[in-house]
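Lab meeting, item 3. Inverse folding demo.
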């Protein structure tokens, strides 16, 4: 090695082995804490909800009755409401999010890209109760006047469509309204993460595709989406997790009806909204039933995450 004349030699100190051990143990403790917290939450939910599971058995999941006077509880309407609102949110939110991300990374002019990206990040930081209040006082009246009432008048009496899209009480509140509000809430998350992933793809891949005559759609379809597929699935699953567990915004607009309707425009309830509405005043078996609802939501979210990991592993394989 040659030294540079006049330069001060750099003396590297030998790292102390004790610091590595402290860092390794601290990292292990942080990772272990996650497992302990997860096990603690799961155990507390199962213990708290066990009297309801023991009292009603499998009927707690399949029953549609929620009668606090006679101490009869069933979770089926809340489970269906939770899955329905989350599915509607994904159907609306995912294409919108991917379109926003592709436009910002491939098509938007430079002067327009920055303010839109900033607006999306600001929307992701808005508290959920603000979405709920906006949905209740602004979106619900407009939705009832311009969508629910005209649509119910058109489809009334039609087979199947008249059942699914006819609203018996067109107040604007309902499962579909909650799904739309949830879609607005998950779009910033999915769009922001997908945009970051698309921007990290090396530009040489895009330039190579354009160099052989590919169109913008072909570049997106055959270059960008396969490269960022794993991250896009992860972003969608993150949005789905928020949609499943969202509480306050859904409580404002879902209608909080303890019944199961065939129409997606009728009021309903979700697991989170039912817990939020009744938990403060619940005692005895009703409290156990609400904790059991939380246990079911925990299990549903866990299954969704497992499916997400399987999808990611499958995409990585190809």
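The presenter then showed the designed sequence:
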């Amino acid at each position: 090695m040659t030294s540079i004349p006049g330069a001060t030699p750099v003396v590297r100190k030998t790292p102390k082995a004790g610091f590595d051990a402290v860092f390794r143990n601290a990292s292990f403790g942080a990772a272990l804490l996650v497992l302990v917290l997860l096990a603690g939450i799961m155990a507390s939910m199962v213990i708290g909800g066990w009297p309801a599971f023991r009292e009603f058995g499998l009927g707690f999941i399949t029953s549609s009755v929620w009668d606090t006077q006679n101490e009869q509880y069933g979770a089926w309407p809340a489970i269906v409401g939770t899955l329905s609102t989350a599915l509607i949110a994904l159907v609306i939110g995912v294409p919108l999010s991917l379109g926003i991300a592709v436009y910002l990374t491939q098509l938007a002019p430079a002067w327009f890209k920055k303010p839109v990206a900033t607006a999306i990040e600001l929307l992701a930081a808005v508290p959920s109760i603000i979405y709920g209040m906006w949905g209740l006082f602004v979106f619900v009246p407009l939705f009832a006047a311009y969508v629910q009432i005209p649509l119910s008048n058109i489809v009334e009496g039609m087979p199947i469509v008249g059942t699914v899209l006819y609203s018996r009480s067109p107040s604007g509140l309902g499962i579909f309204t909650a799904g739309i509000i949830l879609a607005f809430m998950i779009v910033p998350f999915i769009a922001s993460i997908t945009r970051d992933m698309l921007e990290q793809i090396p530009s040489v891949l895009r330039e190579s595709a354009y160099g052989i005559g590919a169109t913008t759609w072909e570049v997106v379809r055959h270059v960008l989406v396969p490269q960022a597929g794993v991250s896009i699935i992860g972003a969608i699953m993150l949005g789905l997790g928020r949609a499943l567990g969202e509480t306050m915004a859904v409580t404002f607009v879902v209608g909080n009806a303890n019944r199961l309707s065939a129409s997606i425009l009728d009021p309903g309830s979700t697991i989170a909204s039912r817990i939020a509405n009744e938990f403060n005043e619940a005692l005895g078996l009703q409290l156990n039933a609400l904790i059991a609802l939380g246990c079911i939501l925990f299990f549903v979210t866990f299954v969704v995450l497992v499916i997400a990991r399987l999808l990611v592993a499958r995409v990585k394989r190809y």
